[in-house]
Amino acid sequence: MEQLSMWLRQPWPWYVAGPLIGLTVPLLLVLGNKTFGISASLRHVCAACIPANIPFFTYEWKKEKWNLVFALGILLGGFLAMTFMRDSTAVTVHPRLVNELAGYGIHDYSSLIPGELFSWQQLLTVRGLIMMAGGGFLVGFGTRYAGGCTSGHSIMGLASLQWPSLAATCCFMAGGFIMANLILPFILSL
Length: 190
Hints:
Radius of gyration: 20 Å
Distance between the termini: 47 Å
C-alpha cells in the first residue's frame, strides 16, 4: 500500500497522463455519445437549483447527471489528495524563477501556490483583487464567450476535428502567453 501511495504522489510522465486524458474522448463517445468538458457543470447545477423560468436554464439537465458526478469526483479527488496525500516538502522552483519572483516579494514556496499571492489577506489588496476576482471573472466570461472551457475545446473539440475548437485553443494559448509574459509582471509589481 505504501508503494502505491508513493507512486500516486509522484508526477506522472506526459506519456502516461497524456494518453489517459486523450482516451477519455473515445471512451465517452463510445459509452454514450457524451462530450467532455467541465464548464457546463455550473449550468447544470444552476438548472437544477434555480426554479425560475430563465430560458438558458430551462432544459433537461437530468440527462447530464454524469457530468455533475464527474465534477463532484474532481472535487472529492482534490479533497482526498489534499487530506491524505499532502507532501510536506517545499516546492522545487528553478533558481532563475526564484530570483525573478523575489523582485515581486514572493519568497514562500512551501505549497503549490504562494501565500504572498493567494490568501484571504491578499484578496483585500489591489494585486489580489485583480488576480483572484478579476482573473476569475475573466476565466468565467471567456469560457462562456468561447462556448466552452479548455478541456471541452482543447481535448474534446480538437479530438473531434472541430474548427471552432482549434480557434478557441489557439486563442487560449495566445492569451496565456500574453498574460504570463506581458500582463502578469505588471500585476505582480503592484
